[in-house]
Specification:
The complex is a heterodimer of chains A (241) and B (92). Chain A is 36% helix and 19% strand. In chain A, helix 4 (46-56) packs parallel to helix 5 and helix 4 (46-56) packs across helix 9 (194-213). Chain A has a single domain, classed as NAD(P)-binding Rossmann-like Domain (Rossmann fold, 3-Layer(aba) Sandwich), CATH 3.40.50.720. Chain A contains nine helices and eight strands. Chain B is globular. Helices cover 25% and strands 27% of the residues of chain B. Chain B has 92 residues and is α+β, with helices and mostly antiparallel strands. Classes of the chains: A alpha/beta (241), B alpha+beta (92). Chain A binds chain B through residues 41, 43-46, 131-135, 138, 155-158, 161, 163, 178-186, 190, 192, 197, 223, 225, 227, 229-230, 234-241, and chain B through 8-10, 12, 18, 48, 57-59, 61, 63, 66-70, 73, 75, 84, 86-92.
Chain lengths: 241, 92
C-alpha cells in the first residue's frame, strides 16, 4: 500500500501541468511522491523508464545495473554520456536523474538482479519495471513480485518490435507463468535502435504511473505488441482458450 | 479459404517474412495449422515453433484474431482468421 506524501509549493509548481490531467490531480501526485519503483536494468529501455518516472515525480527509484559505460551503450542508453565511458552505469544514471529532479531519492545498485539480491530488491519497492536483457533476471523479478504481491510492468523489445504488459497480483499471470522457460536462442546482445527501446520505455513508465496513481486502465491481461517497421499496434488478449 | 499468418519477434527472421497468406482446402484447428506451417517451412522455423515432441514450444505464444489460444484447442480456423506466433523477447 502506497502512503501518499503531501506536496511542497515547489512541487506543485513543477507538476502543475500533469496535475491538470483529469482524475490525477494533486491526489495522484501525492501517490507518485510516496511511491518507490525498482528498475532493472537502466539501459535503452530502463533508462527512459527511469527518466520519465523521475520527471513525473516518483519519490524513490531503485536502479539495478552492473558494469561501466561502454561505447556500444551510447546509441540508446540515454542516461549515459561520453564523459561517463568507463565509469559506473548506475552512478551516471543517478547523476543525470538528480540533475533532472533534485528531490528524487535514488538508490544506485551496481549489480544486476540475481538469486542473491532479487528478494531484497523487489521487497524494497512498491512496483517493479522489468527491463532486463536476460530471461534469468526477468524470471527472478517476476517470481519475487508475484510472491510478494507487487505489480510488475514488463517491457521488452527486439529489432523494431516491442512488447508491453502489466502483471497485477491476484489478477494476472506473471512472466514465468506465461513463458515457463526461456528461449534457448535468446542472446544478451540484440539488434536495437534507441527510438524503439525509448518508445516502449515511455509506455512502460506510463503504465507504472497509472498503477501507482489509479488512473486509466493498466494493460493487465493484455499484451501490447508493436512493430515500428510498419507502425502496427495490436493488443493481444492473454489467457488460453 | 484463406488464413493469414503473422510472425513476431525472432520468428519473423526464422520464417523469412513478417506474414503470409495460406490457402486451405479444409478447415484446420490451430494445432493442425501450426504443424502444417512448421512442416512447410522446415528449419529454422520448425525448430523455433515445435519441440522434440512436435508440440508448440513453451517460449512461443499463439493467438487467433488477437486472442491467445492453447495448443490443444480444437476450434477450427475460419476464412479470414489471423494466426499470430509470438516468441518471448527480452531486449532492453
Amino acid at each position: 500500500m502506497i502512503e501518499p506524501k503531501s506536496l511542497t509549493d515547489e512541487e506543485r509548481a513543477v507538476y502543475e501541468w500533469q496535475m491538470w490531467v483529469p482524475e490525477f490531480g494533486e491526489e495522484g501526485q501525492e501517490k507518485l511522491k510516496g511511491a518507490s519503483v525498482l528498475i532493472s536494468r537502466i539501459g535503452g529501455l530502463g533508462g527512459v523508464v527511469a527518466y520519465e518516472l523521475a520527471a513525473a515525480g516518483v519519490g524513490r527509484l531503485v536502479l539495478a545495473h552492473a558494469g561501466d559505460v561502454k561505447p556500444s551503450d551510447l546509441n540508446r542508453q540515454l542516461l549515459m554520456t561520453h564523459d561517463g565511458l568507463g565509469k559506473s552505469r548506475v552512478e551516471s544514471a543517478a547523476r543525470r536523474l538528480r540533475e533532472l529532479n533534485p528531490r528524487l531519492e535514488v538508490e544506485a545498485v551496481n549489480e544486476n538482479v540475481s538469486e542473491d539480491n532479487a528478494e531484497a530488491l523487489v521487497g524494497s519497492v512498491d512496483l517493479v519495471v522489468d527491463c532486463a536483457p536476460l530471461f534469468e533476471e526477468r524470471f527472478l523479478m517476476n517470481r519475487e513480485a508475484k510472491s510478494q504481491g507487487k505489480p510488475l510492468v514488463e517491457c521488452a523489445m527486439y529489432e523494431l518490435e516491442a512488447q508491453l504488459t502489466t502483471f497485477l497480483p491476484g489478477k494476472t499471470p506473471y512472466l514465468h507463468e506465461l513463458y515457463p522457460e526461456k528461449p534457448e536462442w535468446w542472446k544478451r546482445e540484440f539488434p536495437v535502435f534507441g527510438a524503439v527501446s525509448g518508445a516502449v520505455g515511455c509506455m512502460g513508465a506510463m503504465e507504472a504511473i497509472k498503477v501507482i496513481s489509479s488512473i486509466g486502465e493498466p494493460l493487465a491481461g493484455e499484451l501490447l505488441v508493436f512493430d515500428l517497421a510498419e507502425l502496427r499496434f495490436h493488443k493481444m488478449k492473454l489467457g488460453s482458450s | 479459404m484463406k488464413v493469414n499468418i503473422r510472425y513476431c519477434g525472432q520468428l519473423k527472421q526464422a520464417a523469412g517474412c513478417p506474414s503470409e497468406e495460406l490457402g486451405l482446402e479444409d478447415s484446420l484447428s490451430a494445432q493442425e495449422l501450426i504443424a502444417s506451417v512448421a512442416a512447410n517451412h522446415g528449419e529454422p522455423l520448425a525448430g523455433y515453433l515445435l519441440d522434440e515432441n512436435g508440440r508448440l514450444r513453451a517460449t512461443v505464444l499463439a493467438f487467433v484474431n488477437e486472442e491467445q489460444v492453447d495448443w490443444e484447442t480444437t476450434r477450427p480456423l475460419g476464412d479470414g482468421d489471423e494466426l499470430v506466433f509470438m516468441s518471448a523477447i527480452a531486449g532492453g
